[in-house]
Design a protein that fits this description.
The chain is of the alpha/beta class and 303 residues long. It has three domains: 3-72, Arc Repressor Mutant, subunit A, CATH 1.10.10.10; 84-164 and 265-302, 3-Layer(aba) Sandwich (D-Maltodextrin-Binding Protein, domain 2); 165-264, D-Maltodextrin-Binding Protein, domain 2 (3-Layer(aba) Sandwich), CATH 3.40.190.10. The chain has helices at 3-15, 18-25, 29-43, 59-81, 100-113, 173-179, 209-212, 226-234, 279-302; strands at residues 48-51, 54-57, 89-95, 117-123, 137-142, 157-171, 184-185, 194-197, 218-222, 239-243, 254-258, 264-272. Strands 3, 4, 5, 6, 7, 8, 9, 10, 11 and 12 form a ten-stranded mixed beta sheet that branches. Strands 1-2 form a two-stranded antiparallel sheet. The longest helix has 24 residues, at 279-302. It is globular and about 70 Å long.
């Protein structure tokens, strides 16, 4: 197999159709189908199935596509490392979308000191694998029970503790006027309220399980998008978990006082050990630490 064959399977895996994969590769759908057929003939087995919803790859083809993706990430990482100036080049940061604005602020600060740095912010539900250099830096959270992502368990990664982010509950003034005029919520009253939660609540360990432990069960909206959850809360759909210091009344939400403290996560900045002395990566990491320290100070003042 050639690199073109691997890339063909990779684009089919990513886009799920001959047409979309062809558009990505600059080929027609018929050419993509023809090349897949030739590849299958050469290997003597079926790799791709057509379905009513697009295409489905056989497990062997999935594995070949994953190999291609790892190679693609490695090439991109080497390209980022090949800049002439110590600070020139890109730094790719993996983060949940709720903290993307903080990373953007860190990027602004890093570029003020080193204009040749370019920062790429990647927000995704599946954290980038830092051990294979899918990203250079990752902002990672560790729950109170110590759960970690698979990539964070790699021995080639190093991490810097940033601090604990404490969460609280927030709601619109309209919701509070109708359902909670005291703006205080006792543990025994969670079952009487609507909550806007992450889509994973009750399905895998997550922050929202804190709600389940207190009897919450009414979830009119689930979403993995922080922006969507906050929008629904501002519209009065229910109470929403938010980080203290990151949600304020200027954004249309009011903090609810709780009988017991809200859940917390310990945040860490993670990178591959081979990047610890790369100037541009260190500059961005330093800016992220600076922004996070300022945020935690704001949180402490508002707690």
């Amino acid at each position: 197999m050639s690199w073109d064959d691997y890339r063909l399977l990779l684009e089919l895996r990513r886009h799920g159709s001959f047409l979309a994969a062809g558009a990505r590769l600059g080929l027609s759908a018929s050419t993509v189908m023809r090349r897949v057929g030739k590849l299958e003939e050469g290997l003597g087995r079926t790799l791709v199935h057509r379905t009513a919803r697009g295409v489905r790859l056989e497990p062997e083809a999935e594995e070949l596509a994953r190999m291609a993706e790892q190679f693609e990430h490695a090439l991109a990482a080497r390209a980022r490392d090949a800049a002439a100036s110590p600070f020139a080049g890109s730094v790719r940061v993996s983060v949940s979308d709720g903290f993307a604005p903080s990373i953007a602020e860190a990027a602004i600060r890093a570029r003020r000191a080193h204009p040749e740095i370019h920062v790429e912010i990647v927000t995704e539900q599946r954290y980038a694998d830092l051990s294979t250099r899918e990203a250079d830096l990752g902002l990672r959270a560790v729950s109170p029970v110590g759960a970690r992502t698979r990539s964070d368990a790699s021995p080639v990664l190093i991490e810097k503790p940033l601090g604990d982010v404490i969460s609280g509950l927030f709601a619109s003034r309209d919701y509070l006027k109708r359902h909670l005029p005291s703006r205080r919520l006792a543990d025994a009253d969670f079952s009487a309220h609507d909550f806007i939660v992450d889509e994973s609540v009750g399905r895998r360990p997550c922050m929202s399980d804190w709600l389940l432990q207190r009897g919450a069960y009414r979830f009119p909206l689930r979403s993995n998008s922080v922006a969507a959850r906050m929008h629904a809360a501002r519209a009065g759909m229910g109470l929403v978990i938010g980080a203290l210091g990151a949600v304020d009344e200027q954004r249309g939400l009011v903090r609810v006082r709780l009988e017991t403290p809200g859940p917390s996560l310990n945040f860490r900045l993670v990178m591959h050990e081979e990047l610890r002395k790369v100037p541009r990566v260190r500059a961005v990491a330093s800016a992220i630490t600076e922004v996070f320290d300022a945020y935690l100070e704001t949180q402490r003042r508002g707690a």
